[in-house]
Write a structure and sequence with these properties.
Blueprint: H1 5-77, H2 79-88, E1 99-107, E2 110-119
Antiparallel strand pairs: 1-2
Length: 121
Amino acid sequence: MRMSVLQQSLHNSRTYITSRNGAIIAFALLLAVMGIATIAQTVRVAQTGHEIDTLIAEQTALERTHKALLLRMADAQSMERIERYAEQTDMIPVQETTVRFMILGVDKGQVVVTKALEQSP
């Protein structure tokens, strides 16, 4: 079964076209996979950037809250505020007299003075 030159030429061209089409399809698939990978990476970078922006905003808000709490703490510990509070609640200042310290303990379910100390100015 000999092929004529024309048939052999036609067969060779079909083989070439088929292998060429396969190469083109493989190249197209490779480009598609690379495109999908690039898009996926771009989406991941955008999501990470958004998360970073969110965390920076949260950090800034927490820093503001921390500064406000430090200010409130300093105000609550200021002597002027403590004196004002004492006056508003009708507290009286300690007189410069002898101060007694008592050390309490528990004996058989009862609170008892275990030691008493006196200190004079």
